[in-house]
Write a structure and sequence with these properties.
The chain has six helices and two strands. It is mainly α.
């Protein structure tokens, strides 16, 4: 294994996460006014799993066994597969964020003049931002290679699943007929499967 090549793959993944954070912070500046926001208790249900999952993906190598058990060897291939997934996930999430526009929120909300978006990546999955972020976490876990990272990815998936169920309940109340038809046409987070 070329250490330089492996580290280059990890560098691409780090760059993806930095770009993601910058884009999300800048995008948060120009959202529509919120007319409904979930409670802090409701938000805590999925945020706790997300934070623990993130921690496991990033810090597994320094945690006790079995979290630090290497399950994917540190190779140039694993680093670049991880980088590919991270770049692909980043592009998909940013595309979805741009299409969603001012309707976006980091928490379950209803915006003033809220629109049901069904174009762009929303034709492929109902929650493309989550799909993109999950791909980025999967790429990071693969490149890092530790058991804890894959466990962390699973927790992130659970976090998003809990959150999207709340979002979908809200969308069904606000767009009862249109959203039900959309649910029948388009899968949640994995095209053609889930």
């Amino acid at each position: 294994m070329g250490v330089h090549e492996y580290l280059s793959g990890l560098g691409v993944i780090r760059a993806c996460w930095i770009i993601f954070v910058v884009v999300w912070l800048l995008g948060a500046i120009s959202t529509k006014r919120t007319i409904y926001r979930e409670s802090s208790a409701e938000r805590a249900r999925y945020w706790l799993a997300l934070v623990i999952g993130y921690f496991l993906v990033i810090k597994s190598s320094s945690l006790p066994s079995p979290f630090d058990r290497l399950v994917v060897p540190h190779t140039t291939s694993s680093a670049w597969i991880g980088a590919f997934l991270s770049v692909s996930g980043l592009v998909f999430a940013i595309w979805a964020r741009v299409i969603l526009g001012r309707n976006w929120s980091g928490v379950v909300t209803l915006k003033e003049g809220h629109e049901l978006i069904e174009r762009g990546p929303y034709r492929i999955v109902r929650h493309p931002i989550y799909t993109g972020i999950l791909a980025m976490f999967a790429g990071t876990a693969i490149a890092m290679g530790y058991f804890g990272g894959f466990l962390g990815w699973s927790l992130v998936f659970v976090s998003f699943w809990l959150k999207l169920k709340r979002e979908e309940d809200l969308m069904l109340k606000h767009f009862p007929d249109k959203y039900a038809a959309y649910q029948n046409r388009v899968k949640r987070v994995i095209p053609f499967l889930v």
